[in-house]
Every structure is written in structure tokens, then in C-alpha cells.
Amino acid sequence: MNKCFIFIFLLSAVCQLSFAQSDRWQQRVKYTMNVDVDAVTNRFTGQQKLVYTNNSPDILKKVFYHLYFNAFQPNSSMDVRSQELGKTIINGKPDWDSRVKDRISKLNDNEIGYQKIISLKMNGIAQPFKYHETILEVDLTKTIPPKANVVFDMEFEAQIPLQIRRSGRDNPATGVRYSMSQWYPKLCEYDYEGWHPTPYVAREFYGVWGDFDVTIHIDKSYKLGGSGVLVNAGEIGWGYDVPGSELKPTVKAKRSWHFIANNVHDFVWAADPDYKHLVRKIPNGGPVINVIYNYKDNDAANDAAWETVADGAVTVLPFIESKFGKYPYPQYSFIQGGDGGMEYPMATLISGPGLGTVFHEWMHSWYQMMLGTNESMYAWMDEGFTEYAADLVAGYYRDKVSRVKNASNPAYIKALDSAAALLPLEHAANYRSYYFIAKSDWEEPLTTHADHFNTNVGYSVAAYSKGCVFMEQLGYITGAATRDKILLEYYKQWRFKHPNASDFIKLAEDVSGIKLDWYKEYWCSTTKKIDYSIDSLWEENGVSKIRLKRIGQMPMPIDLQLSFKDGTTELHYVPLNLMFGEKPAENNASNRIVHEEWRWTHPTYIVEFKHRLIDLKKVEIDPTKRMADTDQKNNILELNW
Questions:
Q1: Dist CA 176 CA 332 (whole Å)
Q2: Pairing assessment for the beta strands 347-350 and 331-336 based on DSSP bridges
Q3: pTM score, two decimals?
Q4: What are the tens digits of pLDDT across the range 201-214?
Q5: Closest by CA position to 369, among listed 389, 341, 353, 347
Q6: Which of 29, 186, 356, 513 is deepest in the core (most CB within 10 A)?
Q7: Helix, strand or coil for residue 622?
Q8: What phi-psi label fits residue 281: left (phi over 0), alpha (psi between -120 and 50 degrees) or beta?
Q9: Is residue 142 scored above 70 in pLDDT?
Q10: What is the pLDDT of residues 129-139, one digit of tens each?
Q11: Distance of alpha carbon 204 from the chain centroid
Q12: What is the average per-residue pLDDT within 10-27?
């Protein structure tokens, strides 16, 4: 081969290796659904046509559907599990989900939820099926070969449960009539690990990406918001055609709302006669922002709060996209409903206009709606990454608003700049939550299945707070700027491909040039703690020395800052041998001294420095406080010679 051909061949091989990690097959769905809602009986009938593409290399002998509403029946798995967890007392309180408690056990026949399949055909042939509470098992009369398309036609009926968890009717807190999440028979995900028919016990979802064409027929007095674009906006009005327009009159008893959502893995909608609709159009081709909430007469404060949600979304989107990637859909809807905050593609259900919840749920558009991990197995990659991002978005928003309000006060702006330099500041609450669980008896590894944690508090802190700390602490290990590059490359390579934890770590290693498998092993697969201390210091033959000690079982690289009487500082960096590399200097630090690696097998390490020991004023491990050291009292030594 000539030199030019060899170069092209090698370049091609490198490119293929670089992107092979994210080249994973995905199943595909295309739903067309027509549902007819009876707002008197709170029941609806539905026809569902599902085109299913088997992009896997496997022959499929059966399929599974989720039937989520069946969880809302006395003695269901969700009911019993909630009551069992409530028997555990933590800090003097039952450890059940306060939204569920024992409420399901008290539902009457007309308050329960159910989904019943009237008929199911594949390519026109009736299919046998079996109920497993919230899972429908279908033994196919004919297998689905690799790379084949089949069409499932289903007729079903459902009763909307009294609102308890996420979905339902007649929300007792907000008054919202219908919060319609997990409302249709939804095909389970089949991936490289096989089928995932996860029963609906408490939390987390996993779905197949595809296209949704949904038409909802409901009493004409109702107003709707949902996933996707309302394609008959000209017929409906109510702000969908022109911002501020009224609901258009109709002589029909029911109005038809036709939504289309493409390249999503779920579809949500909500309905209420008293909804109000705010619209914001983000400039330069950005998405349309819909804010839909229950209007209350003579409640200006409520209106103002929801206006702030709409304006806040416009304010923060440029920051979000610069840090985490572009939002790819034509709209996003913040809809009052549900039981707190719950994310769905192109929409969220939120019970109130609190901006913390607003930002968290919108960031789920990245960390679940586009980067759709299996939430049951990797809840910390969903909730934790979202929590990390939402902290930054909230901080950006507060900073932006404060700068506008105080633009004429230079001292205030200077104080804001100083506060922004304190990297863990925005994540302080999540660090505190992690320290709480780490010092308790309730911590379990992040690898625990979301439904199988022994306590609700153990799950919540693991998924949200320890997952958030994972990401901020990753910046401590790789450098914050490198971590930010990792997140953008993660978005670029893995959106719409269901990555797992190993996929993320492999990408982070490629971007950083640092081995990180040890970090995943210790932080995710164990509950081992980080605890380092300043053990002793002395002079020996004119050389000043500090001995550091690892007390906890989890090894880490160390930033050690020395402050001297003359006002100067030195940052001594000790990489961990398992990293096979080192993070670059951060913030253009010119006073950093890099030492030999610390072998993880060795509990102590000696740092040498050139100043006289008597000149030393302060020694501090991890001055940025990003390392989640569970006992920071032994991280600082103040010297009064």
C-alpha cells in the first residue's frame, strides 16, 4: 500500500474506534392512538396501532407491555410495598412515600385505576396474552425476526384512578382534573440485555424511542397540554394558534386534540376546564414554551409565579444549551398536575411554580428524555445528573436576576463574582444529604435496583444527592473544564442510545485521558467512604514534610494547599496511581506542584516542600471542598507558631 492509502486507512480505523462505543442498535416504535374520554365516569376507551421495528439481532418470541394504572388497586405491589416501607421508622417518621402512604388500600371501585385489553392483534392475527398486574405478557403466534416490522392493533379501556402517585384524577392539592401520565398500554423496552418488563412498584421508567400520533376526544369544556405539537391548533385556538387567543367554540359535545411527538419514548397529557395557557417563543428558532396552570380568580400572586416560570425558561435555555447540548424539540410544556414534579418528553407535570422543581424537571429533557438510561438500574444517572445540572441552572438564574437588579452596584457584582468561584456552593445541599446517608445505617450502593432499596430515604439520597456529588466530584478528579467537555461529548455521542454507567465512564476516560473505572467501582458499586487526614509534619535534613493519611476505604487523588506567613500559597497535587494520568492545572494555577502518584494500597503519603516549616501557616486538603470527605475536621491544620 502506498503511504497516502496507509494514512487514510489508519485514519478511518481510528475514527471507527472512536465512535464504536456509541454505535448501539435501538428498537423503534410508532404509535397512533385515538382515545375517547368520559369525564363523568372517568373512563376512556382507546385504539392503538403500534408499528414495531426489531432492530436487534435477535428473534423475538414474545413482547411485553406496561399497564401502569393497574398499580392503583388495593393489595397491588405498589400498595403493599408502600405500607411495608412505612413500617421502618427513620428520624421518628415512617419511611413511606408521603404521597402514597396507605391511600391505595382505601380506594373504592370507582376510584381505582385499571387498564384492560379488549383485543390485540399482530399483523391482523389475534395474539394470546396474560396479565401480571402492571405487565402484559404476549406469547406471539409468530416470531419477529431481526430487522422486521410488525403492526400491533390493540383496543383497550381504562379507568383513571384517584390521583395518588404521578397520574390520576381530581388532584387534592391542586384541583387539576386529569394528570394523564403512564395512561396507555406501553411496549416494554428490549435492548442488548433483553426484555425489561419492570413491574410498576414505586418509581422509574424505561421506554422505546419512536413517534407518537395521539388524538384525545374529551368534553369541549376541557383544555389540554401535553407532549408534542398540537397539529390542529387552528381548530383549537387557546394560545396554540396565536398566543393569548381564546378557546374556539364548537357545536360538538366533545373536542378533539391532536398531538404529534417525534423521537420520544413516552407521551403525557393533562386536562382541566380551568387551565390558563401562557406562551413564550424563544428567539432565533428556539422552542415554544407553554406554561399551563390552574387559573384562580383574584389570585395575582399565582399568576405572577407562573409568569416567572415562563420567563425563567427563556432566560436559562441559552445557558443550558451551552453546558449540556442543544434542546432538539419544537416545544416544551410546563403543566400543573401530578404530585410534585415528574418528567416526560417535551413536557413535565409540576404541582406548583417553584423554580427549583421547574429547572430540575426541564433538565430531565437531557438526562432521561435524550440520554435515556434504564432508570431502574441507573437512577443516579437520571436523577443525579439532572440534580447536578439543575443546581447550576438555578445558580445561573439567581446570578442573572441579581445582576440585572443590582447592575448599578459594583460592590454587589464583585461579591457575586467571588461567590461564583466557590465551585461546590450550588451543590452544598446535595453534599449535606450525601454526608447524612453516608453516616447512617441506610446507605446502599448506587447499583441497587431503584425499586429494591430497603428504604425510601436510601433511594432518594442515592439517586439524587450521591448521583449529583458523583458529577461534581468527577470535576475534582478530571478538572472541572474537562468534566464540562465530558458532558457535552456525552450528549453528542450517546443521545437517543440508552447509555449505561460503563458507557459514560468509557467516554469520560476517552475525553480526559484518565482511567476512571476505579471511581465507578468505589462510588457506585460500594458504600466505601472517603476520609483523609493531615497526620503529622516535620523537618528532616532541611526538608519540610507533611504526612497524609487515608482513613476511609475509598482512595482519591489529593489537592493539598499550603498557605505561608508571607501571604503566598502552593497547591500540591498528588495523583492516584489507578488514574494512570493526572488532571490539568485548574484556573490557570501557576503555583501547582505535581508529585509522584499515591499507590492505593498505601495508607500514608509524604509530601515534601521547599519552605521552612516555621513559615507554614495553614495546611488544607481539598480547599475547593469538591471531594466528598466524610470527616473534614481533620482536613485543615492551622498553625500558630
A1: 19
A2: parallel
A3: 0.93
A4: 998 899 999 999 99
A5: 347
A6: 186
A7: coil
A8: beta
A9: yes
A10: 999 999 999 99
A11: 10
A12: 56
| CB half-sphere exposure, 87, CA atoms < 13 A | 5
Task: HSE, CB side, 13 Å, CA atoms: give it for residue 602.
Answer: 12
Q: What are phi and psi of 556, to 5 degrees?
A: -150, 155
Q: What are the residues whose beta carbons fall under 8 Å from the beta carbon of 283, sequence distance 6 or more?
A: none
CA dihedral 312, 313, 318, 319 (to 10 degrees): 60
Contacts for 124-128: CB closer than 8 Å, 24+ residues apart: 124/153, 127/152
Distance CA 96, CA 166 (A): 16
- Helix 501-512 to helix 480-494 angle (10° resolution) is 130
The set of cell numbers assigned to 162 is 384517584
What domains are defined for the chain?
Answer: 21-208 (2.60.40.290), 391-525 (no CATH), 532-638 (2.60.40)
> What is the structure's pLDDT at 405?
67
Q: Could you say which DSSP state residue 381 is in? A: I
DSSP structural state of residue 354 = -
C-alpha cell read off for 154: 390493540
Query: How far lies 547's CA from each of 38, 397, 560, 570, 607, in Å?
Result: 73, 43, 11, 16, 6
Which helix (H) or strand (E) segment holds residue 532: the answer is strand 532-540
Summarize pLDDT for 473-519 with one digit per residue, the tens: 999 999 999 999 999 999 999 999 999 999 999 999 999 999 999 99
* Mean pLDDT, residues 381-388 taken together: 98
Polymer length in residues for the chain:
641
The H-or-E segment that residue 180 falls in is strand 178-180
- What is the 3-class SS of 65-134, one letter each residue? EECHHHHCCCCCHHHHHHHHHCCCEECCEECCCCCCCCCHHHCCCCCCCEEEEEEEEECCEECCEEEECC
Report residue 175 as a C-alpha cell.
Answer: 384541583
Q: Which residues pair with 259 in a beta bridge?
A: 214, 230
At residue 304, the 3 state secondary structure works out as: helix
| Cβ proximity of 9 and 25 under 8 Å | no
Supply the pLDDT for residue 8.
Answer: 37
Beta-bridge mates of residue 186: 66
Give the span between the Cα atoms of 163 and 620, in whole angstroms: 52
Tell me how far apart the 2 most distant CA atoms of the chain are, in Å: 97
Q: How confident is the model at residue 417 (pLDDT cuts 50, 70, 90)?
A: low
What nine digits make up the cell of 581? 494520568
Q: How far apart are CA 13 and CA 23, in angstroms?
A: 15
Is residue 302 within 8 A of residue 256, CB to CB? The reply is: no
Please, which pLDDT band fits residue 421 given cuts at 50, 70 and 90?
very low
**Cα–chain center distance at 388:** 9
